[in-house]
Design a protein that fits this description.
By secondary structure, the chain is mainly β. The protein has three domains: 98 residues, RNA Polymerase Alpha Subunit, Chain A, domain 2, CATH 2.170.120.30; 91 residues, YbbR-like domain (RNA Polymerase Alpha Subunit, Chain A, domain 2, Beta Complex); 94 residues, RNA Polymerase Alpha Subunit, Chain A, domain 2, CATH 2.170.120. 15% of the residues lie in helices and 50% in strands. The protein contains five helices and 23 strands. The strands form six sheets. Strands 2, 5, 8, 10, 11 and 13 form a six-stranded mixed β-sheet that branches. A five-stranded mixed β-sheet has the order 6-4-1-3-7. A three-stranded antiparallel β-sheet has the order 9-14-12, with no helix packed on it. The N and C termini lie far apart (179 Å).
Length: 328
């Protein structure tokens, strides 16, 4: 009898009691939800491919994780506690494939409950190609300028080649690997520097060390200039003689440090002939000589010799002396 009365009391007004229970459960649910906090976190994305295959198209290197859980718990999670990966290892032929991003919990993230993780983007599409490799030359990339008046005479890199690996279509197009900037600004002497290689394409991998040894020889900058119509001067001719005709003009090409060559022009005695050994009128072939300031050298000149006729100077002709008279 007591049991029947208890059952009657429990079933009495059961609709109202059911609504009260549901309201209590909803209140508990909303209270729990309100205690949860969202936290965004970026982690690296690891792409796994089958042996002999690699990604041949761009893909996100990181993914955004939205963590939802109790405030203290989600704030305590570190980046290293979560790993994101896209597994393409099940595909063994070239093509375009899409897989979901998987998140693996480790460390402090293992014991957190509740913990919801939403991934952005939720999946990744990648084109796979066969893996290939080849050796290519290393090319330096320069920045800045040497001190005024200096130039890079020569340079060398060790090693001269490196091996690159990646999708066969990109490896086939690879012609060289550049360095990070080799700084030239302010240099006027030989120098050596360790320079990192530049990863121009993230889908290509450089096999081995990613630095090279760069050596450079720095010299004063040189330049060449040519001059035409240069006067050839006659030097050391005895005043009792004269040239029967003017000397021809000449061409002259000089070289030297750039600043000196740019500022220099031929003088009246840059090209000359030495007539100090002329002792009588007649025809002579005389070499053309060059006289230049320090720092400038003659590369070529034309003519290298001249043919000329020496005659007695009009001022040197005197009337014959009469017997008994002293010559003036």
């Amino acid at each position: 009898m007591a049991k029947e009365k208890l059952l009657e009391r429990l079933l009495a007004d059961w609709p109202a009691k059911s609504l009260s229970l549901m309201a209590a459960l909803l209140l508990f649910f909303f209270q729990t939800v309100n205690r949860l906090e969202e936290r965004p976190l970026s982690v690296p994305l690891t792409v796994v491919a089958a042996r002999d295959f690699v990604p041949a198209s761009a893909y996100p290197r990181t993914v955004r994780l939205i963590l939802r859980g109790e405030s203290n718990a989600v704030q305590a999670i570190l980046e290293n506690d979560l790993e994101a990966s896209a597994d393409f290892s099940g595909f063994d032929s070239a093509g375009v494939y899409r897989v979901s991003v998987l998140v693996t919990k480790k460390g402090s993230a293992l014991d957190i409950d509740p913990l919801e993780i939403r991934v952005e983007p939720p999946d990744v599409e990648v084109r796979l190609e066969r893996k290939d490799a080849k050796a290519v030359p290393v090319v330096p990339v320069f920045r800045g300028f040497l001190d005024p008046g200096y130039e890079l005479a020569s340079w060398s890199i060790e090693p001269r080649t490196v091996e690159v690996s990646g999708p066969e279509s990109l490896v086939a197009k690879a012609v060289d690997v550049g360095t990070e900037y080799v700084e030239l600004t302010g240099r006027s002497q030989d120098f050596t520097a360790a320079v990192r290689l530049s990863h121009r394409d993230s889908l290509l991998e450089i096999i081995g060390p990613d630095t090279v040894q760069f050596s450079a020889a720095v010299r004063r900058a040189t330049a060449s200039r040519s001059f035409e119509g240069v006067t050839v001067a006659a030097s050391a001719l005895d005043p009792i003689f004269a040239l029967a005709s003017p000397l021809p003009s000449a061409t002259l090409r000089v070289a030297g440090s750039r600043d000196l060559v740019d500022a220099w022009t031929p003088g009246p005695a840059s090209l000359f002939i030495d007539l100090s050994e002329v002792e009588a009128p007649g025809a002579y072939t005389v070499p053309v000589l060059v006289q230049l300031p320090e720092g400038i050298q003659a590369e070529a000149w034309s003519p290298e010799s001249v043919e000329l006729v020496v005659v007695a100077s009009a001022e040197a002709v005197q009337p014959a002396a009469e017997p008994g008279e002293d010559a003036p």
